[in-house]
C-alpha cells in the first residue's frame, strides 16, 4: 500500500505546530502516513483542492486564511458536516476513497473538549464572557450554542460583534447572547463564570492582558485561546489570583486529535500528541 499523505493547508504555514503533532500521532498509532505543510496563496486554493486525490492526499487541516473559502468549495464539490455548515468554516477535510471531499470543523469541539478536560468547566447553564468576535470567537459561541444560560460578547470592532450576534441568532435563542460595550466589561464579568479571550492580545512578547486584573474575581475561570507561548499576562494574572486558567494549547491539541479521529476512525493518542506539541512550541520560541 502506498503511504497516505496528510497536511496543513494555509498561507503562511511555516510555523504550524500541526506537522509535529500529527506525525507523532501516526508514529504512535503505527500508521504508515506522513503529514506535511502546504503553503498555498488564496488564488491557488481551488486548483489545489480540486486535485487532492491525484496528489495522494487523504486528509487536510485548513488554517488562516482559507477556512471560509474551503467551506464554500467543499459545499459545492463535496459534503459538509453539520457543525462546519453552521459555523461557515472548514478546518478539516477527509478525502473519501472515491475522491469526494468531506468538510468538518473541529475548532468548536476541540475548544469544548479542552474546556472540560483542562479547565474542568461544564458551560451548560453558566454565563460565559467572550472577548473578541473574529473567527475563533465564532467557533466557540457557535459550538456552545444554547448550552450556557447567557453569552456576553464584546469586541473593539462593533460591526464584527453585531455580525457574530446575527450569525448566532440565526441558529440559537437570541435572548441568550448579549453584546457588551467595552465600558460595561467589569459589570458583565462580575456576572460571568467563564472568560474566554478570543482576541490576539497575548500572542506577542510584552503584550498586556486584554482585561484589567481588578476585574478578575472568583469564581471566574479563564480560557485564553492564545497558544503560541507558554503563558500570557491574562493567565498569569488569573493564576496569581488563584483562579483556574489555561492557555489555548489544549484547544489546539483537541482540534488536532478530533481531526485524527475523523481520518483514522480510532481514538487519538492524546498524550503523545500533547508532548509533541509542547516540544514543537519550544522549538518555535
Ligand atoms: P481575529 O479574527 O483577528 O479576531 C479577533 C478580534 O478581537 C478582532 O475583531 C479584534 O478587533 C478584536 N480585538 C482586538 N483587541 C481587542 C480588545 N482589546 N478587546 C476586544 N476585542 C479586541 O482573530 P481569530 O482568528 O479569531 O483569533 C483570535 C485568537 O484566538 C488568536 O490569539 C488566535 O491565536 C487564537 N486561536 C486559538 C486557537 C486554538 O486552537 N487555541 C484556534 C484559533 C484561534 P480588530 O480586528 O479591530 O483588532
> What is the terminal-to-terminal distance?
38 Å
Query: Roughly what is the average pLDDT, rounded to an integer?
Result: 96
Structural class: alpha/beta
* Number of discrete helical segments: 11
Q: Count every beta strand, where a strand is a DSSP E run of 2 or more residues.
A: 12
How is the largest sheet built, in terms of strand order?
Answer: 2-1-3-5-6-4
Name its key features.
11 helices; binds NADP nicotinamide-adenine-dinucleotide phosphate; 6-stranded parallel beta sheet; 285 residues; alpha/beta
Structure, explained:
- By secondary structure, the chain is α/β, with parallel strands linked by helices.
- 39% of the residues lie in helices and 19% in strands.
- It has helices spanning 18-29, 45-49, 67-77, 82-87, 107-117, 135-144, 158-169, 185-190, 233-240, 249-264, 270-284, and strands at residues 4-10, 33-39, 57-62, 79-80, 92-95, 101-104, 127-131, 150-154, 177-179, 194-197, 221-224, 245-246.
- The strands form 2 sheets. Strands 2-1-3-5-6-4 form a 6-stranded mixed β-sheet, with helices on both faces.
- Helix 1 (18-29) runs antiparallel to helix 11 (270-284).
Amino acid at each position: 500500500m502506498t503511504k497516505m499523505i496528510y497536511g496543513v493547508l494555509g498561507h503562511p504555514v511555516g510555523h504550524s505546530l500541526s506537522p509535529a503533532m500529527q506525525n507523532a500521532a501516526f508514529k504512535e498509532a503505527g500508521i504508515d502516513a506522513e503529514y506535511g505543510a502546504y503553503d498555498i496563496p488564496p488564488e491557488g486554493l481551488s486548483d489545489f483542492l480540486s486535485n487532492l486525490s491525484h496528489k495522494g492526499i487523504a486528509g487536510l487541516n485548513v488554517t488562516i486564511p482559507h477556512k471560509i473559502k474551503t467551506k464554500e468549495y467543499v459545499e459545492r464539490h463535496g459534503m459538509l458536516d453539520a457543525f462546519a455548515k453552521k459555523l461557515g468554516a472548514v478546518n478539516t477535510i477527509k478525502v473519501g476513497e472515491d475522491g469526494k471531499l468531506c468538510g468538518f470543523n473541529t475548532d468548536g469541539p476541540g475548544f469544548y473538549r479542552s474546556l472540560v478536560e483542562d479547565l474542568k468547566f461544564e458551560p451548560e447553564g453558566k454565563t460565559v464572557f467572550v472577548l473578541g468576535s473574529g473567527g475563533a470567537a465564532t467557533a466557540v459561541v457557535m459550538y456552545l450554542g444554547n448550552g450556557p444560560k447567557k453569552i456576553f460578547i464584546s469586541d473593539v470592532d462593533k460591526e464584527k460583534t453585531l455580525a457574530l450576534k446575527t450569525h448566532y441568532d440565526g441558529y440559537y435563542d437570541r435572548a441568550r447572547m448579549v453584546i457588551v460595550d467595552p465600558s460595561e466589561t467589569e459589570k458583565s464579568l462580575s456576572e460571568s463564570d467563564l472568560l474566554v479571550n478570543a482576541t490576539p492580545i497575548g500572542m506577542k512578547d510584552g503584550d498586556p492582558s486584554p482585561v484589567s486584573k481588578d476585574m478578575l474575581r472568583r469564581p471566574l475561570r479563564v480560557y485564553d485561546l492564545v497558544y503560541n507561548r507558554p503563558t500570557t499576562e491574562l493567565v498569569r494574572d488569573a493564576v496569581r489570583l488563584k483562579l483556574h486558567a489555561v492557555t489555548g494549547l489544549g484547544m489546539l491539541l483537541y482540534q488536532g486529535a478530533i481531526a485524527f479521529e475523523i481520518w483514522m476512525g480510532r481514538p487519538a493518542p492524546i498524550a503523545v500528541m500533547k508532548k509533541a506539541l509542547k516540544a514543537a512550541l519550544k522549538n518555535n520560541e
